[in-house]
Amino acid sequence: MQLARVCGNVVCTHKYESLTGFKLLLIQPVSSSMAPLGRPIVATDLAGAGTDELVFFVTSKEASNTMDNPLVPTDASILGIVDEIEMLEWKE
Amino acid sequence: MQLARVCGNVVCTHKYESLTGFKLLLIQPVSSSMAPLGRPIVATDLAGAGTDELVFFVTSKEASNTMDNPLVPTDASILGIVDEIEMLEWKE
Amino acid sequence: MQLARVCGNVVCTHKYESLTGFKLLLIQPVSSSMAPLGRPIVATDLAGAGTDELVFFVTSKEASNTMDNPLVPTDASILGIVDEIEMLEWKE
Amino acid sequence: MQLARVCGNVVCTHKYESLTGFKLLLIQPVSSSMAPLGRPIVATDLAGAGTDELVFFVTSKEASNTMDNPLVPTDASILGIVDEIEMLEWKE
Amino acid sequence: MQLARVCGNVVCTHKYESLTGFKLLLIQPVSSSMAPLGRPIVATDLAGAGTDELVFFVTSKEASNTMDNPLVPTDASILGIVDEIEMLEWKE
User: Fold this and answer.
1) Closest CA to C74 of C83, C62, C84
2) Does the complex come out with an ipTM higher than 0.85?
3) Confidence (pLDDT) at A89
């Protein structure tokens, strides 16, 4: 799974039928120093995440395993809201 | 899923048989500021997307879940046309 | 799927048994301006592609869906030869 | 699989139900010279890894194959703790 | 599949049970000019590859298709040793 920060809602009236009813959030993956890194992701939200929260999300086939209907074509799902990361210092 | 802008049509007379009948669009993934980022993608279009539209697309195995025939070998499908993204300001 | 240019043949006498009989081509993914971008890929060829041709290829599980035997361990297959891309101008 | 160093614990009270009971570690993928490279990963730990250890982890669908319940939506699992890497010199 | 050069052995006494008996090699993906590119990979070896050899490997679900037990959680397997690549000149 990867860490990301919720950065927006995706509004989309014209979408693939089986995605109806899912909240789509735009999330930005972050580095270990919590800086934005790489492309933003459109994810289905399974954790009730709100704006600006730090979350972790799962990708690929595992994302659709979280659906009652395994054929929902999602490849990114938010699984949890991160309370805290107990970081260790990096030793070279 | 990822955000992309539709940037072209792929014309291709010589292709794998089970792809016949699908519209293939060239789409360019974008950053959260909507700048082009990374390699362009050839995607099957399931949302009736037109040129220059902002879309979101699914990759990997989930892309072929969108097909009536799950053996259609696509790894990228356009699922929706984005009307609007309600963006939040990034807080460092 | 992604765009690539065919850049070589991979000659390989010692290989995993179920790959016997497949043509392996070295292809170089390209950007939307057709410049080389990223690592080269060793792909099974299902489109009769020749040297220097622009092709599109599928990755991951979908690549092995193109095989009569779904257990052939390929993760990249050339699906079509691109005749033309009708490109649109990028609007910032 | 990829090499990573364990760099933290992810504390998360609000998470997807079937992940309950799994230890989630934040790991940082490394280059062959063991320098941090790319985004950190939140992984389920199957090897009893501790802080600062060098581990290898598996991604994608194979990560959930390691679960008794294959529907646990993990896409990264730590499989082993590396004792030593017998490195060869790189010949250009 | 991708090209890589074998750069080391991974020694690991504490590992996930079903990986027992497999040789784990550290391989470095290479560019088309055979320069190191990107993160090193820990791969199961199915081709009897030795140190410093140029190999090609398969990733993701297809890697575990090469196992007698499809639940062995590997996401990278060496499939062949490259004898030669007949390269073509890149035409801009």
Assistant:
1) C62
2) no
3) 62
